[in-house]
């Protein structure tokens, strides 16, 4: 079976990585207009680096959970799996999933805003970090900020449209274009979530519960 899977923040929440909506979480301590937009970076790059340095440290301390492991096992099975994630963490990779499509970029990668070079980010980045390619002091996290175009959208749309089954896991379905991917699906659709998302009515079937329980149970049935 050809399966396209979209994962959101809910799959990493049980690994200790907060979502946008966590009360008193890391995101609530900052104005997102200041730390997650190109304009915010232009105004105060040091603040943006401080924010992502904290997120990078949080990510480095986290470990993949049972849901990440189950999806890695599914990718190693006889099924043809395309794994797409809205998350910028690297937990899918560390769990063993190959070829993860990061539509919102990767926290553990750096990008030169001047020449577009990309490389593995150090745990702590600063405004003085030179680009290894052009030496400009214009490095930023390789993540997609509000107002920017997500990565790999053509490949993502093709994978979803040609899949026998499209599955959305741990996503609120409130951030576009990810929230609209279910409309591209030609096969069956399934939502796995802690609770119904904003687009729950667009899916053919649903499974509700913590990702560490619901995802391994679903994968066990397929494998």
From TrEMBL:
Please list the residues that bind substrate: 52, 55
Q: What class of enzyme is it?
A: transferase
Instruction: List UniProt keywords, sorted A-Z.
Output: Cytoplasm, Metal-binding, NAD, Transferase, Zinc
Q: What is its main location?
A: cytoplasm
Q: What reaction is this protein's catalytic activity?
A: N(6)-acetyl-L-lysyl-[protein] + NAD(+) + H2O = 2''-O-acetyl-ADP-D-ribose + nicotinamide + L-lysyl-[protein]; N(6)-succinyl-L-lysyl-[protein] + NAD(+) + H2O = 2''-O-succinyl-ADP-D-ribose + nicotinamide + L-lysyl-[protein]
For activity, the cofactor(s) needed are:
Zn(2+)
PROSITE patterns on file: SIRTUIN
List the catalytic residues: 104 (proton acceptor)
Which residues of the sequence carry a binding annotation for NAD(+)?
8-27, 86-89, 170-172, 193-195, 211
A molecular function (GO) held by this record is: NAD+ binding
Which Gene3D superfamilies is this protein grouped with? SIR2/SIRT2 'Small Domain, TPP-binding domain
| EC number(s) reported in the record | 2.3.1.286
Cofactor details (free text): Binds 1 zinc ion per subunit.
Binding positions for Zn(2+) per the UniProt entry: 112, 115, 131, 134
Q: Which stretches make up the Deacetylase sirtuin-type domain?
A: 1-223
Can you list the GO cellular component terms from the UniProt entry?
A: cytoplasm
The subcellular localization recorded is: Cytoplasm
The entry sums up its family as follows: Belongs to the sirtuin family. Class III subfamily.
PANTHER family from the UniProt entry? NAD-DEPENDENT PROTEIN DEACYLASE, NAD-DEPENDENT PROTEIN DEACYLASE SIRTUIN-5, MITOCHONDRIAL-RELATED
- Function of the protein: NAD-dependent lysine deacetylase and desuccinylase that specifically removes acetyl and succinyl groups on target proteins. Modulates the activities of several proteins which are inactive in their acylated form.
Entry text on domains: 2 residues (Tyr-52 and Arg-55) present in a large hydrophobic pocket are probably involved in substrate specificity. They are important for desuccinylation activity, but dispensable for deacetylation activity.
Q: What is this protein called?
A: NAD-dependent protein deacylase
Source species: Yoonia rosea
